[in-house]
Design a protein that fits this description.
The chain is about 50% helix and about 5% strand. The chain is an alpha+beta fold. It has a four-stranded mixed sheet, covered by helices on one side. The radius of gyration is 17 Å and the shape is globular.
């Protein structure tokens, strides 16, 4: 399996999941111009040009972060990154994956980190962080993880919360979230994934 990634993008969550599960993968960095090492345009794999994307030896290709993470969770040993089949916990995990995708990744950070947005639009996006941050704070005040154990939903939320300081989103004003992020950063799979990508950041900038 190949994982297409950009350093410290949301694809970091997929790398964390692979590390946590001990799954083998080839990691392919997607350059800024989108031309892959084999000469293909990345849009041949991910039509929107977004990471993460995975490609199996059998020719199966999957894009969209929550789908990629769910796929990896299903490949992992049972219970390691996921919750059993048709269960409340499983669907809560899917809910948190989509919450992170829509309420934080797209609504808050995409306008700040993307191109073509005005200063006013970026400031409005920072203000929008307050409501989902409040929801997460209420939940995580009484819970170590989004579920009753670490899952791919935590990997995704961690990857997104990593962008706060660069985006000038004041995570320090939300001590429960700051503490949650620090706990996850200390987790071996997270630390290993971040250490693998940190040296690539300056080259990708």
């Amino acid at each position: 399996m190949k994982l297409y990634f950009r350093p410290f993008a949301c694809s970091l969550a997929a790398r964390i999941a692979l590390e946590e599960a001990g799954l083998d993968a080839e990691f392919v960095e997607v350059p800024r111009d989108g031309t892959l090492p084999d000469g293909r345009a990345f849009t041949e794999i991910s039509p929107m040009g977004y990471v993460p994307a995975i490609e199996t030896s059998g020719g199966f290709t999957l894009t969209e972060g929550p789908a990629v993470l769910t796929y990896i969770a299903e490949l992992a040993p049972e219970g390691m990154l996921n919750f059993t089949g048709f269960s409340d916990a499983h669907y809560r995990m899917l809910g948190w994956l989509n919450f992170t995708s829509t309420e934080l990744h797209k609504a808050v950070f995409a306008p700040i980190l993307g191109s073509g947005f005005s200063d006013g639009e970026q400031d409005a996006a920072r203000v929008r962080a307050a409501r989902p941050f409040a929801v997460l704070t209420r939940h995580l005040e009484a819970s170590e993880f989004l579920g009753d154990r670490f899952s791919v939903a935590d990997a995704y939320l961690l990857a997104v919360l990593n962008w706060c300081e660069f985006s000038k989103v004041p995570i320090a004003d939300w001590p429960v979230l700051l503490a949650y992020r620090e706990r996850l950063r200390a987790r071996p799979s997270v630390a290993q994934a971040m250490a693998a990508e940190l040296p690539l950041l300056s080259r990708a900038a």
